[in-house]
Amino acid sequence: MEKMSTQYSTYVRILQRELVCAMGCTEPIAIAYCAAVARAELGALPDRLDIEASGNIIKNVKSVIVPNTDGRRGIEVAAAIGVLGGDASARLEVISHVDQAAKDMLPEYLKKTPVAIHMAQSPFLLDLTVTAFHGDSYAKVRIVNEHTNIVHVEHNGQVTLEKDLLPSVQDTQADLPDYTLLTVQDIYEFAATCDLADVREVIASQIEKNTRIAEEGLHSTYGANIGKVLLKSGADSVRVRAKAYAAAGSDARMNGCELPVVICAGSGNQGLTTSLPVIVYAEELHADEETLYRALVISNLVTLHIKENIGRLSAYCGAVCAGAGAGAGISYLYGGDCDVISHTIVNTLAVTSGIVCDGAKSSCAAKIAMAVEAGILGFEMYRNGQQFYGGEGLVLTGVENSIRNFGRLGREGMRETDCEIIRMMVEQ
What we know:
The chain is globular, with a radius of gyration of 21 Å. The chain has helices spanning 6-18, 26-42, 55-61, 75-85, 100-112, 184-193, 200-219, 226-234, 238-254, 268-284, 289-308, 318-333, 338-352, 364-383, 399-413, 415-427, and strands spanning 21-22, 48-53, 115-119, 127-134, 137-144, 150-155, 158-162, 261-262. Helices cover 54% and strands 10% of the residues. β4 and β5 form a beta hairpin. α7 packs across α10 (268-284), α10 packs antiparallel against α11 and α13 packs across α14. 54% of the residues are buried. Strands 3-2-4-5-6-7 form a six-stranded mixed β-sheet. A two-stranded antiparallel sheet has the order 1-8. By secondary structure, the chain is α+β, with helices and mostly antiparallel strands.
């Protein structure tokens, strides 16, 4: 791929835009960020909060621990720590540097501050509005489609920021790279030939930060300790270690670990799933740094390509997409060309397409392990002359056709499933 081409620069921009740091599950962090922006706009500590959130945000905040809150969970907690100690300029790391004074204030603030929570009636699956009040003053901030995409800011009736919203538009950011330029063939060509200087910073950060939180998950106690359980069953197997590291990162992240993760497709769990298995396999194979970096370029872009067909939030578990991305990256480490990578992706999606997302929580780590297993199996199948063929279930001839089909399943076919999952979780 020519370095001066529009497609080349778009791929670089996509990686730079997507592979960013976040501390904590991105849905409660979005609430903390929105609340921190509202407090800054209000200019005072709110004495009342009103939160309107789409069902998928409610689903993903319900059961996950918010970092820097002494093990607390929930929308009220995320908003409260955002207004008490959040740094709005840090975006997805908004509560990374909460001071002790803010932590000490949190219990009393939660007791005395009314927090109203409403389900947003919105065409957008990711839609969040925080209104912060202090006496007769208020500030309102709205985020749509992406976790830090502020589309409306209002202070005492004066609108200070407004972006046009159309339900048919997937993103409201004018500078959004053209994700439709992503194809498996071009991803392979870009990864194999790109100037690593253009991607080194984001990939190096992903390797360093995601490995660190995985090791923390393996050495400490978090949630159901899926990573530890897996490692006990076969630490000598690279296949087991690949699953264990990815799961351990999620163990820590879902259960309040205060280490950052480099995310992918708006999700820390997807960032962990798409990167850590590739890193583990590269170490096993004694791959050089260049090969590892190029394999991670493939795994991240494949994950983003698949996920773009589905959307940021869905009833379709995003780890499935990342597991396919990891399988593609592992294929590259073994010398696989575009044909091998394409069949690995299709095989993987055919195996795990039924995993549903019922919110962020400890069991995400187990789902990640299953998604990584499917990615590895997808590669091993094709390496041994086996594959799923077009016409079998949702598999179509051609990797792009199959990706579109599975995307349609996640985006359209599982829409009512998503609503029912949300209803069931709200009733609990």
